[in-house]
Amino acid sequence: MSQRKLKFGLVGVGNIGKVHAKYLSEMAKVEFVAVCDMVQEKADQAASQYGAKAYYTASELLAHSGLDVVIIAVPHYDHPTIAIEAFERGIHVMCEKPIAVHVNDANRMIAAYEAAKGSYPDLQFAIMFQERTLPFYAKLKELVASGALGQLTRATWIHTKWFRSQTYYNSGGWRATWAGEGGGILTNQCPHTLDMYQWLFGLPARISGHAHIGKYHDIEVEDEVTAYFEHANGMIGHLIVTTAELPGTNRLEIVGDLGKLILENGKLLHFPYGQSMLTFTRETEQHFANWEISPVEIEVDTSAETGHSFVTQRLVARLLGQDVDLIAEGPEGLGAVTLANGIMLSSFENRPVDVPLDGDAFQAHLEEKIRSSNFVKKVNTMPAAAVDMSASFGSKS
Questions:
Q1: Is 133-303+335-392 a CATH 3.30.360.10 domain?
Q2: In terms of pTM, does the model score above 0.70?
Q3: Where do the GFO/IDH/MocA-like oxidoreductase domain residues begin and end (predicted)?
Q4: Residue 279: how many other CB atoms lie within 10 Å
Q5: Sequence-ordered list of residues with C-beta below 8 angstroms from that of 142, at least 6 positions apart, any chain
Q6: pLDDT, mean of each 10-residue run, the chain (397 residues)
Q7: Residue ranges of the chain that CATH labels 3.40.50.720
């Protein structure tokens, strides 16, 4: 394994950018050399704190900093533009979620990556889906992939632990606007949930979505969503999310022909069936039945390393010659964007939509929302020191 240090740069010194800056400054095998923010004061302060050079445009940073890797932590619309320029320069990319606001931009970004690999065969593209490292989700992936549940029939996810106050929404002019963020809970808070759904079950064949715009907050985008997914193999899925519920619930039920899993409150319960549920349904002579099954609690090692730093460490290890998997390859980010766009397109048009999506149709709706918006955003600047980003990250339990 190479002993050299990789030169990292960071674009965006907002709330999540500060998280990246801190661990980069402490990470072995990494030299944190450049930081960029369009607000010069933010860039200068971070550069001074971490001994990096300050830049005020992403293009300037990419052209003159001599980077090996760039972390992109800016508002979502800018992810593709910065990533594509980095790819063209042979610079490896770690992108914050989501990779793009809409599938057309996501596909453009992925195509640029694939094209750049013609000139830079070892080019790497990773996305920051750190929740894949959380022990309970990793165990779910293992169990589902093992086939222990047999044919999957239903997945229902109620995830309302995304509370955000009006003060949160007022903390940035770009937040919760069509032009600045491109959406609400599906674009900002739930990309991890959407990624986890498609990571576990794959993409559905059809999506029905119901999105409520500014139902509980003074915002112009969605803050409550219910979606129904139909999969090609017959499985159905449900997703219920909101940023306006306290104390909030995070409950995932996965039902299969041979058993059921329930994850809630730091416990993973397995209900093993003694026989095939579907065969029993077809063949039993009983008119009514109820299986009394005692659940088995699945042991999960919650001491496993997780989080943003761990995801970046995997990218560093690969770049320095280790044969390791990335937590999430960049092109995998298309799945979460597809679900988000599909839910909103279905809601906009009041009909189910098929997957693959009509990206042009969704983009047209989004551009019309931006063009016709007369929403006046209230902005109250909160001192950066008062924002604790750890409260927004998924816990190991």
A1: yes
A2: yes
A3: 137-261
A4: 10
A5: none
A6: 84 96 97 98 98 98 98 96 98 98 98 98 98 97 97 98 95 91 96 98 98 98 98 98 98 98 97 97 96 96 95 98 97 98 98 98 98 92 54 56
A7: 6-130+306-329
